[in-house]
Amino acid sequence: xxxxxxxxxxxxxxxxxxxxxDLIAIKNGKVLAIEVKRYKPPQSVxxxxxxxxxxxxxxxxxxxxxxxxxxxxIRLVVL
Length: 79
What we know:
Trna Endonuclease, Chain: A, domain 1; alpha+beta
């Protein structure tokens, strides 16, 4: 995911540890906080990430969830 975003022109930093977010991606003044999952997670996990991300929205940071779809393509979903 990190390399995918870098190829799109984002500056990407990986967070240390296993907490939200996994990646911070910045491009043209837009900041994405990204939780990365291998495959689309169940709704309960999505809701947990949304709760953690709520505070970031107040600061103009866009929380996202990234995962591979059934065809192996990377999906980036804004929460």
